[in-house]
Amino acid sequence: MESGSGEGSSSMFSAADDDESLKSTTDADLLKRAWRTEKAAPEILKIEADLVQRSREQIQLMEDTVEDFISNGVDPLIVSLSQMDLDRTMFLLRSYLRIRLQKIEKYVLHIHKTPELWNRLSKQEQKFANRCIKDLEEHFEKSVLSKLPDRYKSSLKQSVISEEDDMVPEPQLDAYVICRTNRSLGALQLDNSGVEDPVDLNPDDLYAVRYKSIKPLVYIGQIDLV
């Protein structure tokens, strides 16, 4: 009975800690985390649509505030600090979106044929991906494919006898990434073969692991990439 009560209390405290941590995290912190994670992940992650929208609204508000400060003769130091916050937010947002577009360009065919990945894109990103595919197909057709025998005219396969799309670049999910967790996750089996022993992931320690072994935890925010 005592053990059950302890587990229940532990779960309640854990949930309370998560709620408190979420409340104390600003959009600037969330944007920086999204940017860092997207930059480090080999694959494209789900678009943080709500965060992007809030960041755009915040940028507009900060721009208006800086203009008001300047027109009202506010202390130049305050204006400079406000401008620095604005520049930082604009950099993070632009860089976050640019990294995603670069991944789309690189893996557009793989993303397009994989529903799970396709659904991670925003509507605007899907339009961009469709334009990329159209441009690629036209370029391949004019420069190479039109000059090849029929059985080699696919932009996805090396020949008609290929069973898979062996000419479509895919992200290397086996790549090593640096990660950390903000709380103890206990012992995790990071080796799918089961040969290696489970690893205890302790808060704030850095680990070099294969991305595919931790990606489910990255998706739900329990592990941060750095």
TrEMBL record:
Ranges where the DNA replication complex GINS protein SLD5 C-terminal domain occurs: 171-226
Q: Which GO terms describe its biological process?
A: DNA-templated DNA replication; double-strand break repair via break-induced replication
Per UniProt, subcellular location reads as: Nucleus
Among SUPFAM superfamilies, the record links this protein to:
GINS helical bundle-like, PriA/YqbF domain
* Source species, domain of life: Eukaryota
Q: Which InterPro entries match?
A: GINS_A, GINS_bundle-like_dom_sf, GINS_Sld5, SLD5_C, Sld5_GINS_A
**Database matches in CDD domains:** GINS_A_Sld5, GINS_B_Sld5
Q: Family assignment?
A: Belongs to the GINS4/SLD5 family.
Role description: The GINS complex plays an essential role in the initiation of DNA replication.
Q: What is this protein called?
A: DNA replication complex GINS protein SLD5
